[in-house]
Amino acid sequence: MSRAPLESSPIVEAYRARTRESAALAGNAAAQFPSGITHDSRHLRPYGVFVDHAQGARKWDVDGHEYVDYFGGHGALLLGHGNPEVLTAVHEALNQGTHFGSSHRHELAWASVVQRLIPTADRLRFTASGTEATHLALRLARAFTGRNKVIRFLSNFHGWHDHMTSGYSSHYDGSPTSGVLTSVAESIVLLPPGDIDAVRHVLSEDSDIAAVILEPTGAGFGMVPVDGKFLSALREATEQYDVVLIFDEVVTGFRVSPGGAQAHFDVRPDLTTLAKILAGGLPGAAVVGSREILDALDFDAAPASGREKIQHQGTYNANPVSAAAGTAALSIIETTDACQQANAYGVRLRGRLNQLFAEKDVPWAAYGTFSGFHIFTNANSRNIDPETFDPTVIDWQELKKNPAGLTHKLRLAMLINGVDITDWPGGTISAVHTDAELEQTVDAFRESISMLHSEDAI
Ligand SMILES: Cc1ncc(COP(=O)(O)O)c(C=O)c1O
Questions:
Q1: What average pLDDT does the segment 228-253 reach?
Q2: Strand 123-127 with 209-214, pairing
Q3: Among 377, 427, 375, which Cα is nearest to 404's?
Q4: CB environment 85-99: b (16+ within 10 A), e (fewer)
Q5: Which element (helix H / strand E) includes 157?
Q6: Using CA atoms, how far apart are residues 255 and 152, in angstroms rounded to an integer?
Q7: What was the pLDDT predicted at 5?
């Protein structure tokens, strides 16, 4: 994503003109937060919209404009905003108390539905965020194997803790990002996404690898796709060298299918990290996996097996309100076709957008799997046919590359036309996106393309 200032243009001015209240709040925010925001993905030049409320697949800004929403709570809201059963569960839990500092029934119900859905959830430990979950997963893997290093794949995202910063959107050579210890960065072996030969080579040469972690449908929910064959090969290779395989299902869990990517592809990791949909739109996450590995957290089992117990605190672990929301959301996902609905919309949306790009002669392609979509904006000006575009033949760096400034202008134009897409550019889809949202999205892209054409931005 370009960090260059955005020059004034008709799109920028039209956006400013209709978002005056957001502009005023952004002015306040600039005095309070770095860049006026509280999450890097919310960064938009000249400023993002401030949202007042949301319902279903839509949200409304403080200037009164309505948007089809593809942020979906950063992917947490497979059931859309304000699902009534989730809200009822939250209200009931709130009335009982927001925090007991004790065990409670909600965490048992939450764990039970996770165990019914996720094939490898033999044991669980709840955390407050996905970042904490991947952090804990690495520690568990190191403690279990007695080894130090971890294989990650370039461009895969696993949260923002120190082990996960190099190689995601910068420092592809593995050097530490600002503020991270060199020794921590050196404990990570970064490999090209989807390259099983590279994995096999490292595993055969380096006996200090504790774990391999990846996003199981590819970096950025399939922006850089990998397939089931790669996952099976990875399972085989890690098993051969007694290396812990970690699926980071923070996005894919309960979304790709009720049992996540591991159920869909029928590949069983040793550890899985979960967040987002897990907690029904409230904060919450978990590490789940084999009893053998999670026993390192057990006051009795760890010393009984000659291991040191891993300490793990966390004020908001299994917060009762999050647990109630998560239980309600996962129960709906368990008993309905919510995942299928969202996935089917994804197929329709990607197809319709590619028809539009072909019709308008725009050298872009909409691609993705399951309930995600990505717009390939073709920074290298390849000669492509959107309707037969195959992202697997394009290098991961090119898939992530966008012409300077284009993403911001595209997002502004889409907002002007009533649709909020993410900064990839792309989005995640919910089970309550309907044909009305789909038609509105296609129309918004059509109009946005005209606006971008008229200022020579594409
Ligand atoms: C694949 C993946 N792993 C981990 C995380 C980190 O989760 P959290 O934002 O809850 O810390 C994210 C967040 O977007 C993610 O997409």
A1: 98
A2: unpaired
A3: 377
A4: ebeebbeebeeeeee
A5: none
A6: 23
A7: 62
Judged on CB neighbours under 10 Å (0-12, 13-18, 19+), 335 is exposed
Task: Give the H/E segment covering residue 444.
Answer: helix 435-454
Q: How far from the centroid of its chain's Cα atoms is residue 239's Cα?
A: 27
Determine the atom of ligand 1 nearest the C-alpha atom of 283.
10
- The answer to whether 35 and 76 have CB atoms below 8 angstroms apart is no
**Please, what are the domains in the chain?**
10-81+338-454 (3.90.1150.10), 84-335 (3.40.640.10)
pLDDT(429) > 80: yes
In the block, residue with structure tokens 């790009």: 357
| Cα–Cα dist 325/358, whole Å | 42
- Would you state the pLDDT for residue 200? 98
Distance CA 266, CA 268 (A): 7
CA of 244 to the centre of ligand 1 (A): 20
- Ligand 1 centre distance from Cα of residue 318 (Å): 17
Q: How far is the CA of 285 from the centre of ligand 1 (A)?
A: 9
Nearest CA to ligand 1 atom 5: 159
Distance CA 80, CA 57 (A): 5
State whether the beta carbon of 130 lies less than 6 angstroms from ligand 1: yes
- How many CA within 13 A on the CB side of residue 391? 28
Q: What pLDDT sits at residue 3? A: 47
Which strand ranges, in their side-by-side order, compose the sheet holding 244-248?
A: 123-127, 285-289, 271-274, 244-248, 209-214, 149-153, 188-191
Ligand 1 pocket, residue 285 CB under 6 Å: yes
In the DSSP assignment, the letter for residue 170 is S
* Ligand 1 centroid from CA 129, angstroms: 8
